[in-house]
Structure formats: C-alpha cells, structure tokens
Amino acid sequence: MSQLQPVSRDEALLALDALLNAMPPVAAMGVRASAGDGDFLRLQAPLAKNLNDKGCAFGGSLAGVMTLAGWGLATCRLQAEGLAAEVYVADSQLRYLAPLYDDLLAEARLADGERWPEVLARLRQRRRARLSVRALTLDRRGAVVAELDARFALIIPPSPGDAPP
Amino acid sequence: MSQLQPVSRDEALLALDALLNAMPPVAAMGVRASAGDGDFLRLQAPLAKNLNDKGCAFGGSLAGVMTLAGWGLATCRLQAEGLAAEVYVADSQLRYLAPLYDDLLAEARLADGERWPEVLARLRQRRRARLSVRALTLDRRGAVVAELDARFALIIPPSPGDAPP
Q1: Widest distance between CA atoms in chain B
Q2: B86-96/A86-96 β-pairing
Q3: Neighbours of B145 (CB within 10 A)
Q4: Cβ atoms within 10 Å of A71's Cβ, excluding its own
Q5: Closest partner residue to B25 among A23, A58, A90, by Cβ?
Q6: Is B32 helix (H, G, I), strand (E, B) or coil?
Q7: What's the ipTM?
Q8: Between B25, B64, B90, which is nearest A96 by CB?
Q9: CB-based contact (8 Å) between A55 and chain B?
Q10: From B23, B49, B92, residue closest to A94, measured CB to CB
C-alpha cells in the first residue's frame, strides 16, 4: 500500500527541514524551509554560504534553492495527503534577471492552470503524475531576481505488499 | 583598457580552479576543472558531496556544475584571449534524463552555430556579447544523464583609464 499516516502541514515542514539537512550539498548551502501552507513553500539560505566570485549569489545556488522549493512544495503536499510518492525534477527553465546581494529567499507555487486535486487524482489512479511549478527568488525589497519553471515527476513506487502487475 | 596579459590555457585552467574554490557553495560541492582546451571544459565533483535524499546526485548540483562548466568555458577562453570580461549566466534550460549514481562529470562546449571569433569580435567592438553554451552530465559509461542549454552575458566593465562615454 502507498498510504502513509497523513501528517499536519507544520509536521511536513519540519520533516522537510530534516530532509534538506540530510543532503550534503543542501546543508552546505544552509537551506531551510521558513514558511508554507500546502499551496506555496518558502525556502531561505544565507548569502555568505552562496557567494560567487563577484560577491553576489552564485547562479547554481539560485537554481538549487528554486528547484528545492518546487521539490519541497510537492514533497510536503504529498506527505500531508498521506501519499508515499517520490518527487524527481524532470526539466526546468531558469531566468537570471539581476544579481542578488541579499540572503536567498525562494518561493514556489503551482504553475498557472495546475491544480492539486487533478494532479493527486492522476497520481492515485496511475501511480505517476507530472507537476508544473513556478518558483521565484526575491530580493529584500520583494523584487524578482530569478525565475524557475520546472516540471516534476511524482511516482508511487511499488511496495512489497502490492499485487504483481 | 580591458586588455590583460594573455595567459596559456593551462594557466587559465589553474586560475579557474582557484576561482571555483573561492566560491563557498562550489567548494562545498568539491568542483574542480579536470580538462579543457579552449573549445570545451570538463568539470568533476565527487558524488558524496552532492547526494540527494535518494542516494543519487542532487539535481541542484547537476544544475550548478553544468552552469559552472559553461561559465568556466567562457572565463578560461576570455582569459586566454587577454580579455578582462565578466561572465554572467542569463538563462538556461535543463533536462534531467536519468538518476546519476556516479561522480559528477560535466562537459561544456559552444552551442551549435556559435563561434568564438564572432563572439570575441562582438565583445571587443561593443564591450558586451551573448554566448550560447551546451553542457552535458555523463555517467561513468558516457551516457548523458542531464543536459543544459544556457546563455551567458559577457561584459567588459568600464575601467578608470577609459575615456568617458
């Protein structure tokens, strides 16, 4: 069976922080989940751990934190729904609009037109679904300095108790 | 003036390694330049420093190493040409094709149809140019597990000795 005990969204955020810290490159970037409600997720990371050669934020860190925001949005929602699905990034488009001299703050939401009920129904029915996410990196004044559009694959792996296909 | 003393390509690779190590998130990923000839650049990083929650390479690290490969390709070539230009990533498209359970190995080359002489002529003339790069991540058998197409902005900053515009 693929059903886990559903957890509250706060518990999902705490579980996400533990997952983030368990990944060496993510722990090195100092990424932590600072807010989320199931429809959006905010991650933050200190600039000092993410500097490039020009004294502003490394583009690879922006890519990493925005990708993680999308991945974490999906991971938290699936946990809150009690679904034991894996979340893989499939592809993404990134635009770097301005250098960032502040701490990193990325927010992810579903892409326009994407809706959780439909995605979850598809996932429960076929054990696989695609999820389109949009993430933004904001500076301290709230201006967008980088954007990511990404698609994730949600996959419920077979478990020992499942009937053979 | 924007002309620096031209350096050999080996010196440019060593200088690149120093630049990579000076960036905290890049040093944390253990990225180093392992080969390059001015038309391609190969970067490597150990899997252990770039693990995700599934025991394979973190997508953000793949994005970071491929972006750095493109950035480094441009940086090395500009140094070899004696051009003191800054290199900024402007946008990128990433495709994640398969999980990677090996050390990270990324190779960057100019995109199809892009040629250094034209890019360098544009940069020398206008002090700004765009550069399109393609980077691949390969597994230990040489299969492509992730792809990046990126555009970089090359910019020669004004220097104190320049005449005012």
Answers
A1: 56
A2: antiparallel
A3: 21
A4: 29
A5: A58
A6: strand
A7: 0.89
A8: B90
A9: no
A10: B92
Q: Give the 3-state DSSP-derived string for chain A, with helices as H, strands as E and coil as C.
A: CCECCCCCHHHHHHHHHHHHHHCHHHHHHCCEEEEECCCEEEEEECHHHHECCCCCECHHHHHHHHHHHHHHHHHHHHHHCCECCEEEEEEEEEEECCCCCCCEEEEEEECCCCCHHHHHHHHHHHCEEEEEEEEEEECCCCCEEEEEEEEEEEECCCCCCCCCC
The 3-state secondary structure of B50-104 reads HECCCCCECHHHHHHHHHHHHHHHHHHHHHHCCECCEEEEEEEEEEECCCCCCCE
The pLDDT tens digits of the residues spanning A75-100 come to 999 988 999 999 999 999 999 999 99
Q: Quick check: A79 contacting B, CB < 8 Å?
A: no
Helix (H, G, I), strand (E, B) or coil at B142: coil
Per-residue model confidence as pLDDT tens digits over B109-125: 999 999 999 999 999 99
Are the beta carbons of A63 and B60 separated by less than 8 Å? Answer: yes
Task: Give DSSP secondary structure letters for B17-28.
Answer: HHHHHHSHHHHH
Integer Cα distance of A81 and A17 in angstroms? 18
Q: Does A22 touch chain B (CB under 8 A)?
A: yes
Two tokens, residue B93 = 């498209």
Of the candidates A129, A127, A134, A163, which has an alpha carbon nearest to the alpha carbon of residue A150?
A134
